[in-house]
Amino acid sequence: MGPAYTLHKVLSWSANNWSTHPIAQSLAVYCNNNTTWMAVASDINIEYRRIDKIVIDSNSVTQVVATDNWIIKITPYKLYVAHQSDTALILNRSDTHAMSATTRGEVQYVNIEVKPTRTGAETFNIRLNALDFKDLQDKVSRPITVLQNVTFHRTLLDRFIDTFKQQVSENPYYETVQELEQCVGCMQVPSNVKLNKLCGNVSEERGPDACVNCFCRPMWCIECMAKWFASRQDENAPETWLSSKCTCPVCRARFCLLDVCYVRLLNQ
Hints:
By secondary structure, this protein is of the alpha+beta class. The protein has helices at 2-18, 22-28, 37-48, 133-139, 156-169, 222-231; strands spanning 54-57, 63-66, 70-74, 79-83, 87-97, 107-116, 124-129, 144-146, 174-176, 193-195, 245-247, 254-256, 260-265.
């Protein structure tokens, strides 16, 4: 019965130049001025062949493609399409997982609802690694609305900065009575971190990679220090950043993450 049903289905779809096929019906929604679904398919094919499209793997069997005018979701059993000119994009959810199949650290995903306003067009959802969000945002012509209660890391640096802050918050405070000046990196906020050797770096104590004391006064905010730390690491191995070392931006004293301390003023 299975093969017979399949043959019947294919034959019924092939009638009228495949106009009853599910993909043809999805494309027919975007027909203008008495054009056929094949004209829409031709437009999509032309844009798909261009090298400036972006292709994002949602998982092992699902792809999201963004061309100049179209957003396409490709699944094993269905093809979803939306024309950007009359489509709303709403980022409505994010979720974080402790481990990733491709990296050693956590991975964050975002869910974007694609809502065509054209009559008959189907709404669908695309799920992306949060680090792919900027690529999609830069390609599509429509703004992506991020709901107010949704937070996520748009770049690898954003994710590292948050993790850096969390790790530093677990280190002891550096107490001082010295008045804090503006961060010399951004000049926007008061400096709030000090490099203070605390790590038990015994095995490398006399080696060139050993952490050493930094005698600079507090000059940096946590945000700028995290950015400086990240800028000195191997961009091709982000999983090693937290366990790596860096040098003070001023005196070049070598330090690790355990040596970065928040500053606490004793007179407050």
